[in-house]
Amino acid sequence: MKFCCSTLQLHICVWLVTCSLQTGLPYQYHFVMLKKNWTEAQGYCQEKYTDLATITNSQDLSSLMNATVVNSSEEAWIGLYNDINSWRWSLSDEYFYGTGEMEYRNWENAEPNNKMGQETCTTMDNVGKWNDLNCENSRSFICFTGTSNSYILFTQAKTWYEAQKYCRTYYKDLASVRNQTENDQIKNMIQGSGVIWIGLFRDSWKWSDGNNVSFHIWNSGQPDNEYGNDENCAVALLNQLGHWNDINCTYALPFFCYIDQSKIKKKQILSVVVQSSQDVSSPAVKATILEKVSRTLMMVHLTENTVTMSQYIPYNFTYVFD
């Protein structure tokens, strides 16, 4: 399609000959038959593609399943993992904590254990020990008022997120526990109140490339961290329509990588017919032609372009650009 002509000194007509094609889907999936553990698969995908597969909707899932090799394994790694080391306090002000106080922990033996694969919030019991628990459970809770070592205990049961919202609305935040002294202070306050929410929580499932997890298609009963077996990585079950299961990250399995097509530069090839009494093959004229082509692209709002002259066809005074 001819889209612009210039008549300054040189007569230049620019023709769009062809351009690269892209599908409407942002992710192009590749099934890799090599067997690697999750971390090795992640490194392979980041080196050769973009990353381990991210799945953001049912259309992505269909595209991923279409990339599967016939008679392949029953399961394959995707980029989903459980970030079990992301524990942090609801009150995030770094100036509130002294050296090492953000990292203070007083876990019960064998905790945190991520029972059933869904424990991302923290309780304290009446002996001062901590346990990870599903945030949707309802428990009493303790708020920090915002003044030094001042807490208020609430015995009405709320989920962790409800308790966090309440504390932030009426006080400062859910209680942080910065050291053994504060742990003992809160322990003494909660005698007879059972276990209570404190402000420690962690992230749950994340994509390797940092994308938010807004789409879930777990297989029935998953994730379950079966037998407390550190099942912190996810596979697509190829015989279950690609539904997900959590398993131990050390297993050697094939895997899915993806290429982010939105970050691939599209290439357009332009054919330029030049009419001039000058020598159109001379460096000065070629520079003028290149400048006029760039200006022409800007006129039609193609501003983010790098234009190079790749070929000159002398018999019809045509330049090819890409």
From TrEMBL:
Instruction: Show where the C-type lectin domain sits.
Output: 29-144, 146-258
Q: Which Pfam families match?
A: Lectin_C
Q: Which residues form the signal peptide?
A: 1-19
> SUPFAM superfamilies recorded for this chain?
C-type lectin-like (SSF56436)
Instruction: List the keywords (alphabetical).
Output: Disulfide bond, Signal
Q: Which domain of life is it from?
A: Eukaryota
The protein's name is C-type lectin domain-containing protein
Q: Which organism is it from?
A: Electrophorus voltai
